[in-house]
Amino acid sequence: MESTYSQIPAASIDEQFVLTKCDYFIDVQIWPLLDRLNPSRWLENFEEDEKRHAVHLLNSFTFFCEPFVNEMLKAAFQGLSAYVLRRDESLLNALTSWATFVDSVIITHVTGEVPSPTDSGYAFARKARQVLQIPEERILGPTDALERLLSGAPRPVIFVDDFVGSGKQFIQTWRRPINTVGRARTSFERIAPLIRGARFFYCPLICTEIGYQRIRDTCPEVVLNPAHILSRRYSALDPDSIIWPEDLKPTAVEFIRRASARAGIPDKNGGVNDWRGFNKLGLALAIGDSVPDATMPIFYWEQNGWKPLIRRR
């Protein structure tokens, strides 16, 4: 028997519907327990005339639990086969080519503006061992990855990451001069055209359209293959955002600004903890243990008596 369903119109979504959905996500462990993510408590932050906006904002919030994160990493990695294998290869040759690729690849990560051992990329790169079964000795920081390329045979390098917002961090990592042993300072960008046979890939889980285009334009030597590309319409601030029903769109940004100001969330012109999220991306998501800076602080703020939807770790 063919199954059919009808989509619930955005305008008909109410508080009971959204909280029931959230409770279900918690019950089946798609969302974490209430001590980490608490929808009903978060709704208590809002005044009565703000409730419809708040309910739709909550309805749009997306949390990717650990099993989803692992599957997205696998999908982004395995998607590289489209760039590694030839379409006219036989099955046996394709399997051999892919095995050769996997057995030679170096995994590295993206670092912050000032590289630090506390960068979240370190922890995420280790997933390559747990999820992709890449040996520990081929999971390296950017400096060691660059050294390995310069001192050995050419091999593929894959940058892994959970989220790309503006694309700025990857571009900085790609261009950043690195001190190498016995050699002049150099960068991935400088050596990419010089090491014959080396190939570079970037596999973030989620990438915004803005970040995707910026990296493609700025780093043409890199094959960018995210698991998902996030349309600008997923921003709560976009005039054509999918978050709001038509009657709430004209007042949506003012609602977020006003509620954020009441919570004490600053206007930093798109800086970290700006009420619109980093780079004014206005997102509503969390990925495993990480809440990206591009996610609006209205979801995680804990000052001035504000009750967070999700606690940052």
Describe this structure as you would to a colleague.
It contains 13 helices and seven strands. The protein is an alpha/beta fold and 313 residues long. α12 links the parallel β4 and β5. It is elongated, with a radius of gyration of 22 Å.
Give a topology summary.
Elements: H1 15-27, H2 39-43, H3 51-60, E1 62-64, H4 66-78, H5 81-84, H6 91-104, E2 106-109, H7 120-125, H8 127-131, H9 142-151, E3 156-164, H10 168-175, H11 188-191, E4 199-208, H12 209-218, E5 222-224, E6 228-230, H13 249-263, E7 285-287
Parallel strand pairs: 1-7, 2-3, 3-4, 4-5, 4-6
Q: What string gives the helices and strands in order?
A: HHHEHHHEHHHEHHEHEEHE
Largest sheet: 5 strands, parallel
Number of strands: 7
Q: How much strand?
A: 5-15%
Question: CATH class of the domain at 66-228, please?
Answer: Alpha Beta
**Radius of gyration (Å):** 22 Å
Derived from helix and strand composition plus strand pairing, the structural class reads: alpha/beta
Report the principal-axis shape. Answer: elongated
User: How many helical elements?
Assistant: 13
Reported CATH architecture of the domain at 66-228: 3-Layer(aba) Sandwich
Poorly predicted runs:
1-6
- In the CATH scheme, what's the topology name of the domain at 66-228? Rossmann fold
**Global mean pLDDT:** 90
The separation of the N and C termini measures: 46 Å
For the structure shown, list the relevant keywords.
single chain, 313 residues, alpha/beta, Rossmann fold, 5-stranded parallel β-sheet, two-stranded parallel sheet, 7 strands, 37% helix, elongated, disordered N terminus
